[in-house]
Amino acid sequence: MTPSCTDGVENLAGNCVFCEIIEGRRKAEILHEDSEVLAFRDILPQAPTHILIIPKAHFPSAAAADPALWGKVMTVAVKLAAELGIEAEGFRLVINNGPKAGQTIPHLHVHLLAGRSFRWPPG
């Protein structure tokens, strides 16, 4: 059974914002959509390019995700970097797992960031 937001997994506001985007109940600038993965621009960008790549199935964290889905999500991230012309300049992929790591929406998502220099360590 594919998990969904009706399984009782909610974000801090009491609903899953990403599931609302998937269901079309919340607007987003969608850059990619297929049967399993959705990618859209972050509404609070932390870099000139800031895209979120999410599975359409609801997994509350990276640790809970179906391993087979990881390859699909990461493939979309790298494909978008190439399509947007940021592959050559470099980009960062970020996954926060849990509140102490900075995850604020409990729906697995990958951040694709580019367009500025990044520092290390990141946190």
Explain what the structure shows.
By secondary structure, this protein is an alpha+beta fold. The protein has one domain: 2-Layer Sandwich (HIT family, subunit A). The chain is 19% helix and 20% strand. The chain is built from 2 helices and 5 strands; from the N terminus they run αβββαββ. The protein has a 5-stranded antiparallel sheet, covered by helices on one side. The radius of gyration is 14 Å and the shape is globular. 25% of the residues are buried.
Beta content comes to 15-25%
How many angstroms does the end-to-end distance come to?
Answer: 36 Å
* H and E order: HEEEHEE
Task: Give the total of beta strands.
Answer: 5
What is the H level of CATH, i.e. the homologous superfamily?
A: HIT-like
State mean pLDDT (0 to 100 scale): 89
Q: If strands are numbered along the chain, what order do they take across the biggest sheet? A: 1-2-3-5-4
User: What would you say the CATH architecture is?
Assistant: 2-Layer Sandwich
Q: Number of folding domains? A: 1
**CATH-defined fold name:** HIT family, subunit A
**How many alpha or pi helices?**
2
Characterize the largest beta sheet: strand count, sense, and whether it forms a barrel.
5 strands, antiparallel
Which geometry do the CA atoms define?
A: globular
Q: What's the CATH class label?
A: Alpha Beta
Produce a short descriptive summary.
19% of the residues lie in helices and 20% in strands.
